Amino acid sequence: MTVSDNMENKTRKIKVCHLTSVHRYTDNRVFFKECSTLAEKGYDVTLVAPNLENHERNGVKLVGVKGNTNRFKRIFITAFRYVYKEARRQKADIYHFHDTELIPVGLLLRLSGKRVIYDVHENNAAAILSRSYVKSGFFKKFLSFSIKVLEKGSARFFSAIVTARPDITEIFKKHNPFTVRNFPVLPDYDSIPNVDVDKTKTTVIYVGGMTEIRGLIPLIQAFEKIENAELWLLGFFGNDGFKEACESEAGWKNTRFLGSVEADQIFGYIKKADIGVVTFLPVPNHITTLANKPFEYMACGLPVVMSNFEYWKDFFKDSALYADPASADDVQEKLQKLIDDPDLRNEMGQKNLQLTQTEYNWELESEVLLEAYEFVMKK
């Protein structure tokens, strides 16, 4: 009997409350993976998130609280006045929170005797160093140091730490964290619906948030010289100013912005494309991340062009071609190689599809999440 089967039989009435003040409720990791899996396995799951109407989906009760776009108000009002108040009202057996700014909320819940899991999605101390909204280099370093102290100082009080990738696990290694990687929830490949979007050329797809540090400008610039293919952008822009900067590039003539869709609808667009691309710039939080999107591209049988980070090259090996993400010429060269060689695309794509079906998938990875919950319930 697997861990998941055992837990399904034993935990029917355990009430779990996931908390976020930052993420949209449809966040892939938070809702479609973790909350939906727990509900499927018999947990009574509630997700508290900002700015949503109360309803139920995938067996998860969704509870909205007032959110704030202003970061100061989000930390001191959304977190304490709304999220914490709703968390107490839920009277859950386990609380599972997803944002650094909710650490004080998690500590207050622990002080009241609750089991609390901190889910660390990224290297937060490193990530702040590349945030454009913090202008002062000195203040960035101060915030980075403060986050590091806050996380390490509070970690020992929580019932468990869950991390999204191995390099974050290393940060919390003294606390025996559970590494729950962002592998895709596999669709039935043959049943992925066809999407209603015209396609007349070989297509390269980028899926995700669109910001400067994710390498969108060099990627679009690469398409100034690529005439026999089109770039599809699926997701949302961080702000209108950056969208306008992208649109001003000459490569925009071969780029199509498709907007954003929910996580469970993404695979239809990816499958219709021919090549996946993820050329994040080498900021501290990127060079050792395991981004979610390469695995989604692979799950749809696509070859991938990725940033030439040593960590990615060691992990993904020949599943991808690797380019300097800051060099439009290098990105263009690697993309053009795949665009011009359909046999190579097919060979790499079929291997990637097989890898996700046998190793890189949420069905296997979710077992670690369920082990974490079993561990917490024994404490």
Question: What would you say this structure looks like, in words?
Answer:
The chain is of the alpha/beta class. It has two domains: 3-182 and 362-377, 3-Layer(aba) Sandwich (Rossmann fold), CATH 3.40.50; 189-358, Glycogen Phosphorylase B (Rossmann fold, 3-Layer(aba) Sandwich). Helix content is 42%, strand content 19%. It has helices at 3-10, 28-40, 71-90, 103-111, 124-127, 137-155, 166-171, 216-222, 240-247, 266-272, 292-299, 310-316, 328-339, 342-358, 362-377; strands at 15-19, 44-50, 55-57, 60-65, 94-97, 115-120, 160-163, 178-179, 202-210, 229-237, 255-259, 275-278, 304-307, 320-323.
The CATH superfamily of the largest domain is known as Glycogen Phosphorylase B
Number of domains: 2
Mean pLDDT: 92
> How is the biggest beta sheet arranged?
8 strands, mixed
Q: How much helicity do the residues have?
A: 40-55%
Total number of beta strands: 14
- Give the N-terminus to C-terminus distance in angstroms: 23 Å
Specify Rg, calculated over alpha carbons: 21 Å
CATH topology of the largest domain: Rossmann fold
The class by helix and strand makeup works out as alpha/beta
Low-confidence segments, given as residue ranges, are none
CATH class of the largest domain: Alpha Beta
Helix tally equals: 15
Shape-level CATH architecture of the largest domain: 3-Layer(aba) Sandwich
Order of helices and strands: HEHEEEHEHEHHEHEEHEHEHEHEHEHHH
Shape: globular
The proportion of strand residues reads 15-25%
Strand order of the largest sheet: 3-4-2-1-5-6-7-8
